């Protein structure tokens, strides 16, 4: 396993691992097995844990902890290139030229260019009289592939394990499916079918007439794109929600689109809809009934002037016709 130029954290778990932190200040734990740990450049922390491990601090000032087993610390150059002293934290080893410092604990052997010493010999600078233990046999492992946090797509896609967000581009009519994590899924301008899957998901059809499923978990259905007009109801940006659950799910209305609902709220910090802005029935009953839910049909509408002359715009259908309350709505 090879790290990046950033500060990496790596854990070997079981098996005989070979881990190189690369550049950056890395933290590496070999876990169970006979591991080879190379901190690379930077100020690194290497922990052998269980097994007979080989630890290499390389450049920088490093902390090496062999853990259990017969462990080896490997140094570049000769024994004469280093000074050593005992501290409460372990052996303090300093390179005379680079001034790099290594703090070493629970390591049994110290390997230099011309000799391998026990701990006592290293401190006393005696010639080597011990035999270097056999190096661990490291089995090659397949490279670790980390899935991207956000996946952008123009085709039907199911999120791989480990990814969080799925964003569709283009205008094709495609299907988007989440995984078991808390996903954020956004459709394109086409007619999408979106299923959040397990987890607490945010499902946003985008533009277009979309079919939305939250799946299991506490899901939010987002409406953040321009609505149609009263003359194009159900023809422009009209979404169908198939599995709304009043116990777990919510409806998020973007205040940039639903402008009469106030300026407070965001996707990260949603604000509950003011109860005076919501009504159940087939039309607005007073001037500030902006969000209208028809329980008989399951249709949600937005009326920008309440009971005024302007017509309401239908923007969603909840096919199971749940009993919605104002507490189900949030402004973002």
TrEMBL record:
GO molecular function annotation: calcium ion binding
Domain of life: Bacteria
Keywords, ordered alphabetically: Secreted
Principal place of residence: secreted
PROSITE patterns named among the record's database cross-references: HEMOLYSIN_CALCIUM (PS00330)
Subcellular location: Secreted
Entry keyword Secreted: yes
GO-annotated cellular components: extracellular region
UniProt xrefs under Pfam families: HemolysinCabind
Annotated protein name in UniProt: Peptidase M10 serralysin C-terminal domain-containing protein
Originating organism: Microvirga ossetica
